[in-house]
Design brief:
Length: 476
């Protein structure tokens, strides 16, 4: 474990960083990363598909607490949707503070299963990516991944200050807590969430666990410095992500200005001072537009240990993106289409989010407007304090009336897209609605998408993760 990877395959949610992708990268000696986002939901849906792979079922059955494994299988495997596997999926409860023990169990097992499968049968290292902004599933997700021996946890989209301490505690099977932000228009007083390995195990002997390394994904040297000096322990390294990267991006500093296409403009204040990062003395990887040999070498010359690459892997054969959608985008890009837009409004998180402008996805205005708002996955809901003191949950992408009734501002709903349903549909796991329609996908990618052809062999429109690694190491 002392040998550090030069290439980190970025964690791409929901499910784009699949078991197959992380496994392939890991077996080639680099860091393969699974996305830990919404895995409870995607596992439940995969189990309901007639063609659910036996590997997944076997992985569940290998879970150290057998009655929990049986319960997950009984709840979801016995509900295979319809003969052709295309009926509506059984609902999975939305994450909340008051969630049932069964949902916690599903969250732990789902993360265990992905890491277990990604690591199975080889010696490579595997990480799991989580978003700081999605707080409710964080503790059970980390513990589930640790039960399967995860080597790295990577977290961005916020300030993941407590994660080093949580990893230390879980490695000793001690209880760990994380404060949940609760909006109340005044102090936003957080509420502690606790996960107790002992309580969870319900009398089973507690397994010996390895403490994974923690890499914080940040977009500023100030945040890197702050995290490295934290009383809760320092990260073991940093991924420094630039605004051309796929997925969510940091907001520009200061007042947000938009260009003619409505995209946020980044300026000199957003530049990362790599000298400050270097002086922290921890390894760092550069992310965002580093998907070529030249950019890889440039990152090394800037003092980085290596690079984190997302977009190039997102469209490889092994990624979790639904096959025909992936091919449609590659073909569009080869024709000079499939523009990537940094949408300042799409994500309910309030962070800019990159979308690929292709037909039949909610990145296109006319398709977006056709969708009836519905919130039934709920990973991006934020907790708020109700007038009666209780905690409620709301998301600016939910039906507008509901959001406003919950005290949300109507102006915050403008242009918001349901990333939960959209990103799950991108995997081919979209929910079927009462009118027979399926949820519509939304695809994110970085500015590097336009260079995707560099991984394709002549005449081909598909490539593998190994082709990306070969190009990056200059082996072609
Ligand atoms: C499809 C896609 C989904 C992503 N989702 C996440 C995510 O869930 N969490 C995260 O930390 N980063 C996410 N990212 C960012 C990547 O992990 C990585 O840092 C980034 O893609 C690197 O820049 P590049 O796209 O130019 O290669 C995503 C990127 C893509 C392309």
């Amino acid at each position: 474990m002392n040998h550090l990877p030069q290439i980190i395959q970025g964690g791409m949610g929901v499910g784009v960083s699949s078991v197959a992708l992380a496994r392939s990268v890991s077996m080639q000696g680099q860091l393969g990363v699974i996305s830990g986002t919404a895995l409870a939901l995607t596992l439940a849906r995969k189990l309901q598909q007639k063609e659910c792979s036996q590997d997944i079922i076997d992985a569940i059955l290998s879970f150290p607490y057998p009655e929990m494994a049986e319960r997950v299988l009984d709840t979801y495997r016995l509900n295979v949707t319809t003969e052709d596997g295309k009926g509506a999926y059984k609902a999975v409860p939305m994450p909340s503070l008051e969630r049932s023990y069964l949902l916690t169990e599903l969250m732990v097992i789902a993360c265990y299963v992905e890491v277990y499968l990604a690591k199975k049968g080889h010696q490579g290292v595997v990480g799991m990516n989580l978003l700081e902004k999605i707080q409710l599933p964080t503790l059970p997700s980390i513990y589930g991944a640790m039960l399967a021996g995860v080597d790295y946890i990577l977290m961005g989209a916020g300030i993941p200050i407590k994660i080093p301490m949580i990893l230390d505690k879980f490695a000793e099977n001690q209880d760990a807590s994380l404060p949940l932000k609760v909006l109340d228009n005044v102090t936003n007083e957080p509420v502690d969430m606790t996960f107790s390995p002992k309580e969870f195990a319900k009398g089973h002997p507690l397994p010996k666990l390895k403490r994974p390394k923690f890499l914080a994904i940040v977009s500023s040297h100030t945040l890197a410095l702050h995290l490295s000096r934290s009383d809760f322990g320092s990260p073991d390294g940093f991924v420094i992500e630039l605004p051309v990267a796929g997925g969510h991006n940091a907001n520009p500093r200061g007042k947000v200005m938009l260009n003619d296409d409505g995209e946020p403009i980044y300026g000199t204040r957003d530049e990362v001072d790599l000298e400050v990062v270097k002086n922290i003395g921890l390894p760092f990887w550069l992310a965002g537009g580093f998907g070529s040999r030249e950019d890889f070498l440039r990152a090394l010359s800037l003092g980085a240990t290596g690079i984190q690459v997302g977009t190039a892997f997102a469209f490889s054969e092994e990624s979790g993106m639904e096959k025909s959608l992936k091919e449609r985008i590659i073909n569009a890009v080869l024709k000079g289409l499939g523009r990537v837009k940094t949408d300042p409004l799409a994500s309910p998180t309030g962070f800019p989010f990159k979308v690929v402008e292709v037909e039949d996805t909610t990145a296109m205005e006319e398709t977006y407007l056709k969708r009836n708002r519905i919130c039934d996955i709920g990973y991006l809901r934020e907790a708020y304090r109700k007038e009666n003191g209780k905690i409620g949950y709301r998301c600016p992408s939910e039906p507008i009336d509901d959001y406003v009734k919950k005290g949300g501002k109507i102006e915050d709903t403008k242009g918001r897209k349901c990333l939960c349903n959209g990103l799950v549909a991108t995997l081919g796991l979209g929910q079927k609605r009462k009118n027979g329609d399926h949820e519509i996908p939304i695809v994110t990618a970085g500015d590097d998408l336009k260079f995707i052809a560099r991984f394709l062999k002549k005449g081909s429109t598909i490539y593998r993760a190994s082709d990306v690694i070969r190009v990056l190491f200059g082996l072609v």
